Amino acid sequence: MASSSTSKYNSHSLENESIKRTSRDGVTRDLSEAIPRLPGETLITDKEVIYICPFNGPIKGRVYITNYRLYLRSLEMDMRNLRFALKQEGHSRRDMFEILTRYAFPLAHSLPLFAFLNEEKFNVDGWTVYNPVEEYRRQGLPNHHWRITFINKCYELCDTYPALLVVPYRASDDDLRRVATFRSRNRIPVLSWIHPENKTVIVRCSQPLVGMSGKRNKDDEKYLDIIRETNRQISKLTIYDARPSVNAVANKATGGGYESDDVYHNAELFFLDIHNIHVMRESLKKVKDIVYPNVEESHWLSSLESTHWLEHIKLVLTGAIQVADKVSSGKSSVLVHCSDGWDRTAQLTSLAMLMLDSFYRSIEGFEILVQKEWISFGHKFSSRIGHGDKNHTDADRSPIFLQFIDCVWQMSKQFPTAFEFNERFLIIILDHLYSCRFGTFLFNCESARERQQVTERTVSLWSLINSNKEKFKNPFYTKEINRVLYPVASMRHLELWVNYYIRWNPRIKQQQPNPVEQRYMELLALRDEYIKRLEELQLANSTKLSEPPTSPSSPSQMMPHVQTHF
Amino acid sequence: MLGKGVVGGGGGTKAPKPSFVSYVRPEEIHTNEKEVTEKEVTLHLLPGEQLLCEASTVLKYVQEDSCQHGVYGRLVCTDFKIAFLGDDESALDNDETQFKNKVIGENDITLHCVDQIYGVFDEKKKTLFGQLKKYPEKLIIHCKDLRVFHFCLRYTKEEEVKRIVSGIIHHTQAPKLLKRLFLFSYATATQNNTAADPKNHTVMFDTLKDWCWELERTKGNMKYKAVSVNEGYKVCERLPAYFVVPTPLAEEDVQRFQGHGIPIWCWSCHNGSALLKMSALPKEQDDGILQIQKSFLDGIYKTIHRPPYEIVKTEDLSGNFLSLQEIQTAYSKFKQLFLIDNSTEFWDTDIKWFSLLESSSWLDIIRRCLKKAIEITECMEAQNMNILLLEENASDLCCLISSLVQVMMDPHCRTRIGFQSLVQKEWVMGGHCFLDRCNHLRQSDKEEVPVFQLFLDCVWQLVHQHPPAFEFTETYLTVLSDSLYIPIFSTFFFNSPHQKDTNVHQRQLSLPLTQSKSSPKRGFFREETDHLIKNLLGKRISKLINSSDELQDNFREFYDSWHSKPTDYHGLLLPHIEGPEIRVWAQRYLRWIPEAQILGGGTVATMSKLLEMMEEVQSLQEKIDERHHSQEDPQAEPPCLLRNSARLSSLFPFALLQRHSSKPILPTSGWKALGDEEDLAKREDEFVDLGDV
């Protein structure tokens, strides 16, 4: 990836920092060499600047603004992998500043996002990775109890849901319409995942519209009971409300609420105490404060604790473990919701699915998981990230998806052999969550994406990744079907993701790739070579050639004593 | 297995708050009593080990899946250990017995390993010591390796309770004579044939030759000489019989203040600068004596300030650096974080984990030690200075800092043999008072300071950050730290080489893990585990330190510049010391806590993959060899060492039996008030007018 560049849209990423730009006359070095440029990327302007690097002090260079990024070419040799972005604080150079804000926040200036201008070509089409029918078929759906419905084909039932939904066989489309009236934003309970053996399911939805008066809806009550009965379970249906109970109660004031025991006799409700988007946003801000520009040293641990970031991670993971355990033990099907069912709900269902289903731990499986639980089910990427929007204080912004990826990273850290992908894979997803180079994370829901013809007009992030798969593979990956993965949600094991949050600090530079991995790769190469040699030897044997085979072209560098035999 | 009393768990609901008292109701226990009494496990005694007292029908609590259940058995106390002989040992399957510790069983506690004993009286936990008037219904033993044992004595005969409790208290807490250490009975009972290949052996530094060899190895022999002035401990009992001083130093000077005030050589750097240490002169009131002391020191300093000696920088370690008191306080706070009685305690402290850790200051002390070592390294490496470490007895922080500097600067010290030789040189011969610092004789709690443990923890930080730079792994360090409390190996059971020499008449066993393969009994683990101890990443470390380019005379610049370059594992090695980089040595401290266990995960998972691959490569290589030489079909593959590696727990090879089921561990308390964020927390995710739906 381009090193000293950054995309303009990364309003939430931690490397955000205003830079002071001063013009400088003395430097007259020729800088006409081309800067790295993507197909479709055009240079808007450039200027000589001094970049006030928070780690290395001022650096002379030239800044280039394209319709994709801000790029600093350094005149000094020891320029490390520095990225920087801007806030609207520039003062000395009015024109530069204006160009920057225009192209950094194109939506506010009626310009297109770069993803629509990007002309990159890949040999794999990432848009074909997720096909809902195929994914449901993989799960063994439809079956006797669950059917695929096209009721939302034109997004009439629910405009933030995908076109294709899996619902209980025994619920008619009319039932669904009636249930929709009782669920916030019509986000009715639909199937996310079914256990291949015990047939318990994870179902997701939004909160019921109970309100202050404690409204009831017979159809909703009956619908939940139908869900409970799909696997012939006798026990109650488990409902996990992701919110703290106080918030769920408070939601009644605005018409929302939760399923109370006295109305839903066959359901049991638990609150998972996960906080809302505002709390998460403030928490991440605090993380940034303790790692940038300087990493807090003497009181690192208490500062880290005071951000609550890992505590939130712990609660999200704990919730997901509970969901996964309920389903895996076959005790009961689970219904998950929060308020609207597109933030915390997506975190919980996708993490639980990752724990339960080893398929999602492969590269393509994970892409499908993100595509399904997050993108298609209407996590509001556009609002949460604020792509191309200048209003960086927008209260709708929140690092919910980042938090999910952090949870995945924590899991991969605890189970280093269970995931096909490596850390780089998670980081590139996050980089392009903000970059607007790909259409993958643009817009809030399927219906908006369809209107904008995103799949036709933009490139998918998965195209980039899947055409370079080797780069994102974890060499230690051991495929284990049906292994349920329960991370330990204890602060003793959770750690701050240094390689992501503090990656720009030259002092905190982690070895890449890590030495154990490197050693393993060497052994892998050695093994492959030996297998090749053995095959050659066998071939030589079978053809009854008496002379020893000629030595292979590249003798091993790793174990010198081996070479003596050849 | 006996009845289970369920505690904890429970989807998000408030779990009942269990105390440490009892989770097993008497009714539940009696139902299964029959099957228990039938099985009897025999007690394995080491040569020279004697049974002192025992009690039967003792119930040991085992925690599994946030529940506790009890196992009946016999609790015995010998002159070496406390052991519980339960009936479930037969349940071990092969994989697990393969990696059993051969000296200390799962339910064995050496007497020296006992840290605190608590008794539970009417649900109240009290520290037990001295003569007891009343005997507890439950015994809780906290160990120095951080294991916690719970034994219920409710079903034990009264006189047996009295005998075992007072026996355990007496043998673990009463002050002891050095001569009564188990070490001696063991040594008398076993034949010691110290089989040693001198080339591949730890240097003991108990001969003049060893010191000369070290001088030669570090090219320090130009300016320093090994002296035998203290042979037979004529000069003082504090110093080893042989040591190294600057060449011009006169022998009378050494004798003058019994070795105090003398610069003693530790190590020489490739550029000629040296690391020296000096114990302070005795404190005197008398002006006349002070005057004599002053002129003596002036003479000494004159010698070492003159060419060919480099500029000397003195580091006073007993001054404002770090006090033993601080180390002691920090560690006793720190260890409490891991001595956890039950699941509730674990989760209650989990939410405050980082601040609890910080308030112990242990990690900060590690950081300060590493920082000091970097500063000294910078002076020697970049400024070509000699460093003179100064401390009252030069036997605590001097040992720590000087050996840390050597681990960082001398790649030889990062090999297993080199590291053991370093421990021998700086700690054992350096006169670190292991007996007092570990309080092996229970004579003074005040003297008990985990200086050596602190050193191992500092080294662990380096091993963790730069695994390929070391021939050994963290498991080696963990086993080494355990051996501090196993009185079979004499290494850590004396205050000085003099004390050892006057008490030991035959050669004792030295550090564990150095034994030759011919005597399998003495190895700590079976050989299979060796792979986990030896670093599979360490390539041969032989190159000497590359001289680096011009470095600035400033710590920060030295540090930053080193870290900005690719690491040469065979050269100078510096740790990262930023906040997130100093970590808890999870293997050593968390290994006995079932809640902290990651089933099928942890670094063990990647290590065993690495092992499997090594084996595969080796067997392929053999096949190729065979094809070449005999053109015959290869023989059967060697058995795989770590079958089913994905099912190993993160605590492997320790605490194998803690948890079998694959049920998740759920925090039982999770939510903490957010304080200043309370108003945010109350906000709606988004304001929505739901009126129209």
Report on this structure.
The complex is a heterodimer of chains A (566) and B (693). Chain A is α/β, with parallel strands linked by helices. Chain A has a 5-stranded mixed β-sheet. A 4-stranded antiparallel β-sheet of chain A has the order 1-4-3-2, covered by helices on one side. In chain A, β2 and β3 (57-66) form a beta hairpin. In chain A, α8 packs across α12. In chain A, 35% of the residues lie in helices and 11% in strands. Residues 1-32, 76-92 and 548-566 of chain A have low confidence and may be disordered. By secondary structure, chain B is an alpha+beta fold. Among the domains of chain B are: 51-174, PH-domain like; 208-507, no CATH class. Chain B has 23 helices and 15 strands. Chain B has helices at residues 26-30, 33-38, 94-98, 158-173, 182-189, 208-217, 251-256, 287-305, 324-336, 343-350, 353-360, 362-381, 397-409, 416-428, 434-437, 451-465, 474-482, 497-503, 527-533, 555-564, 586-590, 603-629, 678-682; strands at residues 4-6, 51-64, 67-78, 81-86, 108-110, 114-121, 124-127, 138-143, 148-152, 224-227, 243-246, 264-268, 274-279, 312-316, 386-391. In chain B, a hairpin with a 4-residue loop joins β8 and β9 (148-152). The longest helix of chain B has 27 residues, at 603-629. At the A-B interface, α5, α6, α7, α8 and α18 of A face α10, α11, α20, α22 and α23 of B. Chain B: It comes from Propithecus coquereli. Chain B: Acts as an adapter for the myotubularin-related phosphatases. Regulates phosphatase MTM1 protein stability and possibly its intracellular location. By stabilizing MTM1 protein levels, required for skeletal muscle maintenance but not for myogenesis.
